[in-house]
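Private note to self, pasted from the team thread so I don't lose it. Backbone tokens:
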């Protein structure tokens, strides 16, 4: 080797010292997402700039740190740059306010972005109160007195309420337009790109819907757990390979011989999983075993208290219960078609269905709410996917009205793959929440069960009920009333229902269309 090409002793020392330097400092996890969203940078765009997957970046913002030194350096540089840009915006905002003769209002700053997340006992998705601004103008020649800094969550909450829906609808339109442009206007090719084909069965739908959800979450007061440390009941399976947690899938055929020969109308509940996404109660953070706590408004709470589920603290997760007796041969069992008895793990959406079955509103169908023997739960919210579901429903409704089959199918694909891959699917690397998947699926089954019971209360006869959306009824379904109101409205909306094929004569078995 030529002498001038040999590394000097100083070079070797410099390289050793470089390897020995302390890792680049990173802000707390809760500050990282707040910084990014304060500058309105999407998760996908930031991940692309950092050359990592959105799921990896989501983990860095939740509970993990970059493992490779070069990734940590790049991420630290990104966050420092964002903080610097926010400080520049803050200075510009205050300077502009002084020029206009009014007190400055600070933009989100690094200190605001570092605000700790809301307590888990108050996870509901509502904007925090905005501090009152200083109404007095600064004295001439004196430095302006800045108003108390608003937190990033407060600032983005306002944006979320006012601007998130147009942004999300525009993003959906951009997804479809891009696919059509790439395919030269070929609708079939665009559909394959968006919704998948062999070997990629999901196409872009998973990444796209996760990006939309990330956009919809801007401004929330709390950070959710991305990768669940799944408890044993969510991991174990039965001997037949089915999950240990029972979701209560509806499966009912009326065996009454008096029903034979009567006309039956097959009905189809619209977008069952989209409706479930909108209203399911989900645990915000890690579910834990038999937790207790103190809520700032509701006082002490415990996993054993039925009143802590579905309201108040709104505990959500999975619970172990005994199966109640079900003597009603003309109604579907809220636990589905169970062939074995004994203790059963169920999602809390199934437990809420049993609470309804024990209520006077649903006819006191069971004597009492089953006692909870064991639980893996955490305080929850029914707003986790509410904004996203609302936007998807708006786009779906418009597509149906316009006869836009590509958009309608794309929306259906997005919400279905979101539910089916958020658990333990390798196809979705953005999130691992098997508890959410079980709860949402069970909630969809529960929604159909409630429709069936309400139909029975309105004087209709249930011939068949199955899955999340199929309900076959004998009687005049369009004039039936419950509590003085029409039971069903026909149409494509989430609160409406449509026929699934022509009416038929009941012969003891459902005619599936």
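Design output:
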């Amino acid at each position: 080797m030529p002498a001038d090409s040999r590394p000097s002793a100083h070079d070797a020392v410099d390289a050793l010292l470089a390897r020995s330097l302390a890792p680049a400092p990173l802000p707390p996890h809760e500050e990282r997402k707040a910084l990014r969203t304060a500058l309105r940078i999407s998760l996908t765009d930031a991940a692309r700039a950092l050359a990592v997957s959105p799921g990896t970046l989501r983990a860095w913002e939740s509970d993990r740190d970059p493992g490779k030194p070069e990734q940590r350096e790049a991420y630290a540089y990104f966050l420092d740059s964002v903080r610097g840009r926010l400080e520049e915006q803050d200075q510009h905002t205050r300077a502009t306010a002084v020029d206009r003769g009014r007190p400055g209002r600070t933009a989100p700053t690094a200190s605001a972005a570092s605000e700790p997340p809301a307590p888990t006992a108050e996870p509901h998705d509502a904007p925090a109160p905005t501090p009152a601004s200083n109404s007095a103008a600064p004295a001439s020649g004196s430095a302006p007195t800045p108003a108390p800094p608003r937190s990033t969550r407060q600032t983005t909450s306002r944006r979320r309420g006012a601007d998130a829906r147009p942004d999300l609808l525009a993003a959906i339109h951009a997804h479809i337009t891009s696919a059509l442009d790439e395919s030269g206007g070929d609708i079939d090719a665009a559909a394959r790109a968006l919704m998948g084909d062999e070997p990629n069965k999901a196409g872009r739908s998973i990444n796209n819907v996760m990006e939309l959800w990330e956009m919809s979450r801007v401004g929330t007061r709390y950070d959710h757990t991305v990768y669940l440390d799944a408890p044993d009941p969510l991991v174990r399976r039965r001997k037949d390979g089915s999950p240990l947690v029972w979701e209560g899938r509806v499966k009912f055929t009326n065996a009454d011989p008096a029903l034979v020969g009567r006309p039956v109308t097959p009905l189809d509940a619209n977008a069952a999983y989209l409706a479930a996404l909108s209203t399911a109660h989900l645990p915000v953070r890690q579910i834990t075993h038999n937790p207790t706590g103190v809520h700032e408004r509701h006082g002490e709470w415990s996993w054993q208290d039925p009143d802590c589920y579905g309201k108040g603290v709104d505990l959500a997760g999975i619970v172990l219960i005994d199966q109640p007796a079900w003597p009603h041969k003309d109604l579907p069992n809220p636990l589905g078609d169970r062939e074995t008895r004994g203790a059963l793990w169920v999602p809390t959406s199934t437990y809420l269905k049993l609470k309804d079955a024990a209520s006077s509103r649903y006819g006191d169908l069971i004597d009492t709410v089953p006692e909870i023997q064991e639980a893996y739960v955490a305080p929850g919210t029914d707003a986790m996917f509410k904004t996203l579901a609302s936007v998807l429903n708006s786009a779906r409704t418009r597509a149906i009205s316009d006869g836009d089959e590509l958009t309608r199918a794309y929306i259906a694909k997005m919400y279905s793959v979101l539910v089916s891959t958020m658990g333990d699917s390798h196809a979705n690397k953005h999130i691992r929440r098997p508890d959410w998947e079980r709860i949402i699926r069970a909630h969809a089954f529960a929604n159909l069960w409630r429709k069936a019971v309400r139909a029975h209360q309105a004087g209709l006869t249930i011939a068949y009920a199955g899955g999340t959306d199929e309900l076959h009824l004998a009687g005049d379904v369009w004039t039936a009333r419950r509590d003085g109101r029409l039971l069903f409205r026909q149409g494509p909306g989430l609160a409406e229902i449509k026929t699934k094929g022509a009416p038929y004569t009941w012969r003891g078995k459902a005619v599936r269309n």
